[in-house]
Amino acid sequence: MGAAQYSNGHLRRKLKLVFFLVCVWGLISLSCAGRLSASRQKLEVQKHLNRLNKPPIKTIEQLINAEGDFTSLFYLGSPDGDIIDCVHISHQPAFDHPFLKDHKIQARPSYHPEGFFDENKMSTGPKERTNTITQLWHMNGKCPEDTIPIRRTKKEDVLRASSVKRYGKKKHRSIPKPRSADPDFINESGHQHAIAYVEGDKYYGAKATINVWEPKIQQPNEFSLSQIWVLGGSFGEDLNSIEAGWQVSPDLYGDNNTRLFTYWTDPKEGHWWMQFGRDYVLGYWPSFLFSYLTESASMIEWGGEVVNSEPDGQHTSTQMGSGHFPEEGFGKSSYFRNIQVVDSSNNLKAPKGLGTFTEQSNCYDVSARPTYFLETGGFRDTPLQHTDRWKRENQLKAFSGWSPSRAFLRADLPS
């Protein structure tokens, strides 16, 4: 009996020891795996940054003595915290695309649509620049000839994304599809729109004058934008999209500043050009990148978009446009004016059969006038005190020189 008790007790002690060793080994394995995962992520982030941030010819930054003794220094490229790299035009990240290998850059479009300038149809360059575009980083310098300014992507920018591969990409396909206000679809995508649109013809460009605001964003993973959509194909996996406008996106940029942005989907020689105002040609999308936008678009949309992540199970208070509804009128609501499209004869003209669409007009709404003056915006459930505060702030900005921006997207006609 004593021997049996000894054997059983000895066995139990051995089992406890084995179990303890297994637990310790498991903790060590998890710890090593955690360190390996963190190390792998750090390596992936750095590789991604090396792909995005091309070697600059010049960097716009300002050396600041943080403590007055030259022992603690940091760099600041712009008062808003951006660092601007001046990259040679032939080394820009766009040329990482396999379809753009050996692509010869075209500096300016061969033609502008009839009516865009008062001069001849053939573009020979602007006579003079009237409204010079200035940006905050210009306070610390400008980029030299044959270079383009690119905001440097930082490690923290990439880490804000759900993964390295997802950085800079939209989380869901969010093209507003008129007449499809299915509540289940709205809740699933989280994107809400207030737009005007035209369809049923071939469109070779679109134009609008958009006033700029600074909408309040409730959650960092939400955004608010005003833009032009140029669409080709069907509302499925084969839809082609080119988009340009302004947006506020804390998740992408790490701040609440309003920024110019572009976005496009990837799948007779012609290009889709983007022009800002009268004199500034910002660049183009080669038509051979697309399957349904090679020659023309089948639909044009103008308007706003927000993400509603439903924080705490409630509709977000993220604002669209100025945060004021169309019925509040000019000076308060956000607007698109001088809405035009380019026809097959390369003429700018007012769109025919302009329709409007919004998923939830009680939250975000749109109104189109006969003179093709479009007003969008709102969030109705914002508390009154909050709304009044933003009304005062936005009125102050409107009287402090906030001017409308003109965005223009067009396609070169095949020669």
From TrEMBL:
List, alphabetically, the InterPro entries matched.
Answer: Glutamic_endopeptidase, Neprosin, Neprosin_propep
**Annotated TM spans:** none
* Protein name, entry field: Neprosin PEP catalytic domain-containing protein
According to its UniProt record, what is one Pfam family this protein matches?
Neprosin_AP
| Limits of the Neprosin PEP catalytic domain | 185-383
Q: Record's superkingdom?
A: Eukaryota
